[in-house]
Structure to design on (289 residues):
């Protein structure tokens, strides 16, 4: 078994342990596969935690108190060597939704007693037989929107439950051709370099020309709630890129922690990936443009 397949098996076992978890034993279930000093990154209000007990206290225990019969509905699963790590660290990516019954308050969001779909993206670094680092992104605004408690004044694109890949081949449980993964990683690198080049130019290229280098015209962008989903390059520009670039000032790219690929799937994350020191909200602009 290759190191990628061993890493996948470790994360799959971790997911199976969490499937048995309750609010009372979440820490013990996490400790089965999470290293005692594992670094866990969760966005606000969870932040960076160390070790299974802290991760359970801030995230899993409150989630399992509020949500009943939690299922992991996974759409994408793959592993890869971190291109940004000189030691070639091995990471596993998992993406999909947690489906649950929303039966008690969660982070101040009031329950609906209905199904809720919690969109997530998870990156896990595996060393030996333990997960030593993890990043967990969950779309809390999406939970609020489903519960009828959305706090923001509007959204630039569509708000939907994200389906899996149209090709239905996102669960890479078997080993993949390394050459295909290298090609996928090259596409990601070229895209990032294109963004850097455009940002550095005194006269950047038209967005249509910039995006056409790396994206198919029939691209689908599943952005987080507040941005939303768009389809085709033109609508992506209209409903995501233009509002992002015109309404957020002093944008800074902070760099990635992990960038990897396997087969035809790839992923990356930063912490934080991007920051903006100035926010310019203009609802009239969104209505008219």
């Amino acid at each position: 078994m290759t190191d990628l397949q061993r890493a996948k098996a470790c994360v799959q076992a971790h997911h199976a342990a969490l499937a048995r978890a309750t609010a009372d034993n979440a820490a013990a279930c996490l400790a089965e596969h999470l290293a005692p000093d594992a670094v866990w990154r969760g966005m606000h209000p969870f932040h960076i935690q160390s070790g299974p007990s802290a991760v359970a206290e801030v995230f899993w225990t409150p989630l399992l108190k509020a949500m009943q019969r939690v299922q992991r509905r996974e759409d994408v699963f793959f592993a890869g060597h971190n291109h940004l790590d000189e030691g070639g660290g091995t990471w596993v990516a998992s993406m999909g939704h947690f489906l649950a019954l929303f039966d008690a308050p969660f982070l101040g969001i009031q329950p609906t007693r209905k199904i809720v779909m919690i969109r997530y993206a998870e990156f896990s670094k595996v060393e030996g037989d333990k997960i030593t680092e993890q990043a967990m992104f969950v779309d809390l605004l999406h939970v609020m929107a489903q519960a009828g408690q959305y706090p923001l004044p509007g959204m630039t694109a569509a708000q939907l439950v994200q389906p899996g890949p149209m090709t239905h081949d996102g669960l890479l449980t078997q080993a993949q051709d390394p050459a295909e993964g290298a090609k996928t990683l090259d596409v990601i690198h070229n895209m990032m370099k294109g963004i850097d080049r455009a940002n550095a130019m005194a006269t950047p290229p038209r967005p249509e020309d910039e995006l056409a280098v790396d994206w198919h015209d029939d691209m689908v962008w599943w952005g987080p709630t507040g941005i939303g989903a768009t389809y085709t390059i033109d609508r992506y520009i209209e409903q995501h890129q233009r509002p992002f670039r015109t309404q957020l000032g002093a944008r800074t790219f902070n760099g990635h922690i992990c960038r990897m690929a396997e087969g035809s799937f790839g992923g990356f994350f930063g912490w934080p990936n991007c920051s903006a020191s100035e926010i310019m909200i203009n609802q009239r602009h969104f209505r008219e443009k």
Q: What stands out?
A: Confidence is low (pLDDT under 50) at residues 280-289. DSSP finds eight helices and twelve strands in the chain. The two ends are 54 Å apart (CA to CA).
